[in-house]
Write a structure and sequence with these properties.
This protein is mainly alpha-helical. It folds into three domains: 57 residues; 87 residues, no CATH class; 89 residues, no CATH class. 54% of the residues lie in helices and 0% in strands. The protein has 14 helices and no strands. Helix 1 runs antiparallel to helix 3, helix 5 packs across helix 7 and helix 7 crosses helix 8.
């Protein structure tokens, strides 16, 4: 700050005023203004210490404000482009959170079903979705479609959400098709069997120990790709397996998978049906 006259800087003079204010003008007189500051206050007309104090505070404030540099102009933030698609229901958003933690094998279908049925990701979920899919170009492309214009808008504001390898352009087929999962040839007929047959065969194999915990990855892939109308019967069949069965623990885990996928597809059904 500039000097107020005979050696005392404006900052030092202001500190003296603060000290006087804290002690009270009945116990301490305000400091004597010097130089240009004295020109701004006419102490001869203000005999009372409190009046001199207020006059100096006002003068110091004016001097400080006069020396402030103007701030750079504010750039008005443009809103993202409109997206007329309805936002997914809260249950679907919560389902995505559960899937990413417990059953990531279902996330591709979650994203593709959402887009196919005309939904868009809830705005509060978009940063997490973009952050999760920064590495894989195909999943990133799906995520950007599902999130809509808000995705590009957010990336401009938060570069950390951008794809790690730049913006690749995967084929339309890779984006729009559900990826294959490894399923043994002998189990493939269960993918297209009737719901009752699929449920009975899978549950029986778990119940009698033919499908042990070592087969969990195979069964996860199978349930993730079995026809949707078989999911409820499969869940019910798993729940009928008693605690004395060697497959009880595995059945409980897989029941959560089949139930999760069943509810996921229901929550992402066509908005017109709601």
């Amino acid at each position: 700050m500039h000097s107020s006259g005979c050696g005392m800087s404006m900052a030092a003079h202001w500190r003296e005023l603060v000290t006087t204010a804290m002690l009270g003008t009945d116990r301490r007189d305000p400091p004597q203004p010097e130089g240009p500051l004295a020109d701004l206050v006419d102490d001869t007309l203000r005999a009372a210490p409190s009046e001199r104090m207020l006059a100096q505070v006002a003068a110091c404030t004016a001097v400080q404000r006069a020396g402030v540099q103007p701030a750079p102009p504010v750039v008005r933030l443009q809103a993202p482009a409109a997206d007329d698609r309805p936002v997914i229901v809260p249950a679907a958003a919560n389902r995505w959170r559960h899937i990413t933690v417990s059953w990531p094998v279902l996330e591709d279908e979650w994203m593709l079903t959402l887009v196919a049925n005309g939904w868009r990701v809830a705005p509060e979920l978009v940063p997490a979705v973009l952050q999760r899919h920064r590495a894989d170009p195909v999943r990133r492309a799906r995520a950007e479609i599902a999130c809509g214009p808000l995705a590009d808008w957010l990336v401009q504001l938060v570069p950390e959400l951008a794809p790690r390898q730049g913006r690749a352009v995967p084929s339309h087929e890779s984006i729009s098709e559900l990826p294959d999962l490894p399923i043994p040839l002998e189990l493939e007929p269960l993918l297209s069997a009737s719901p009752v047959q699929s449920a009975a065969a899978i549950a029986a194999g778990v119940d009698d120990g033919r499908f042990a915990a070592a087969h969990r990855a195979v069964l996860v892939n199978l349930i993730a790709r079995v026809r949707p109308d078989a999911l409820a019967p499969i869940t019910d069949a798993f729940h009928l397996i008693g605690s004395s069965s060697p497959g009880y623990g595995l059945a409980s885990v897989l029941a959560d998978l089949s139930h999760t996928r069943h509810r996921m597809l229901d929550e992402l059904g066509s908005p017109r049906a709601r």
